[in-house]
User: Fold these one by one.
Assistant:
Number 1:
Amino acid sequence: MYMNTQTVNISLPKKLVEIMDDFAEKQFSTRSDLIRTAVIRYINKNRKLLDLFTYFEDKAKKLKMKEEDVDKIIHEYRQGK
């Protein structure tokens, strides 16, 4: 599945490694599978968030809006105006 791989060394607190190994044993086949899955999920989640921020930043630029304008719109919306 991951034919082109690279080994990465990281330092983690011993207790975290114990918890991670216990979880990996119950849910995944190896520690590497657990870490790989966690990293992929983290990146996918944050990439979507970054894409969303970028989308709205581009929209605001096209509308020539400033941060204060966005704050005002949010405040007015929350106040029911």
Number 2:
Amino acid sequence: MKTPVLFAALAIGLACGCSHRGSMGGVGGDRNVLTGGPVTGTQLSDLPAPVRDTLKHHVPSGEVADIDKQTLGSEVVYKISFADPTNRPSLYISQDGRVVHGEGFENGK
């Protein structure tokens, strides 16, 4: 008698648990600069505070697709790519929070 009830409860639990369909990205699918970020690789929480502050200042509502840590000589620069690159081109920010421009960073040199 207990076995069929146990199996029925297990089947209902599995059916309910498996029916949830979450989206990829940040917390609850949120990749917003202020609250989320990429799911894999370098995340917003991994960035130095000056980089996060600059990113929030320049693009407070952008959806971050990828963060790539690059070096040019001895300078570390973070390439921030956005989900909509047509309207939000990549942003390069040095460790101290300066926005950096230059082709050298495109190649990861």
